[in-house]
Amino acid sequence: MRILIDGDGSPVKEDVIEIAGLYQVEVMIVTSVAHYTHKEYPAYVHFVYVDQGADSADYRIVGLIRKGDILITQDYGLASLVLPKRVRVFHQTGKEFSATTIDSLLEQRYQSGRLRKAGLRTRGPKPFTTQDHQNFRQALIQALEQVKLSSNNE
């Protein structure tokens, strides 16, 4: 199992790295070359750099992810593409995407896009809060604890 992060603009990268270290889980951060960093990270953290195309990171993640992995993204479309691969997908606010919730989220995104094309304003995402941050950390820890328990029972 690995944790993949849709890295462009993710406010929870450092949290994931910290928590993954406690559970000895590999982290892959997929991000555009525009976000290249010289910062040193632990050996279990790997960066995968992609071109700056609109969906370059998404396509790379779809190719890299495998059964049992965890993905961190706020992209509903990407979540819908990887859920059939039997992975767990979390939003940066800690909400877990599932096969039962993703369809309604995609429908909401579609309807908002239609309204914007018609010239109407729609609400953007709410600012990332301290509570979102705490919820995310709690959700990731809980997911990793579940994996740990299930592997101990095998």
TrEMBL record:
UniProt family annotation: Belongs to the UPF0178 family.
Species of origin: Enterococcus hirae
Listed name of the protein: UPF0178 protein EB03_02059
Pfam families to which the protein is assigned, alphabetical: DUF188
Superkingdom, taxonomy of origin: Bacteria
